[in-house]
């Protein structure tokens, strides 16, 4: 991680150090987005796990589909920022599209993570609002929240 932290800081993107563990392409690092899928494997005493990092950006939806089609479980990251959540959950939003695509591709287990809570000053009411709206939507898709 120290290596990624140093490289990210040199490019003025210090907060991206963890993203760079899987984002290896120069374009990914310059733009601050995942473009292609990346795999990271590890084993526990009980399971063999492969983490598939798939892009969330609309321009790379084909790559997202490629990664998601191989998954048993998906982690849907939702941005809590004002306007970000609303854009993602809107009729044509990426959050909505990704949840629907994952389910359609056979991924029946979904973990939802809410990111960027610091931008809301850790607002409990914002957190609950996101949980309520997201739970309602993913239930309609077919998931069991």
Task: Summarize the structure in words.
Keywords: Elongation factor, GTP-binding, Nucleotide-binding, Protein biosynthesis. Residues 1-145 form the Tr-type G domain. This is Translation elongation factor 1-alpha. GO terms for molecular function: GTP binding; GTPase activity; translation elongation factor activity. The protein is of the alpha+beta class and 145 residues long. The chain has one domain: Rossmann fold. It is 40% helix and 18% strand. The protein contains six helices and four strands. It has helices spanning 2-10, 26-31, 61-68, 84-89, 94-104, 124-141, and strands at 38-43, 48-53, 73-79, 109-115. The longest helix is centred in the last third of the chain and has 18 residues, at 124-141.
Strand tally: 4
Quote the distance from N terminus to C terminus.
Answer: 34 Å
Roughly how many Å is the radius of gyration? 16 Å
What is the tally of helical segments? 6
Question: What would you call the shape?
Answer: globular
The helical percent reads 40-55%
**Structural class, from helix and strand content?**
alpha+beta
Specify the CATH architecture. Answer: 3-Layer(aba) Sandwich
| Percentage beta strand | 15-25%
Q: Could you say how many structural domains there are in total? A: 1
CATH-level-4 superfamily name: P-loop containing nucleotide triphosphate hydrolases
**Main sheet specs:** 2 strands, antiparallel
> What's the level 1 CATH class?
Alpha Beta
- Order of adjacent strands in the largest pleated sheet: 1-2
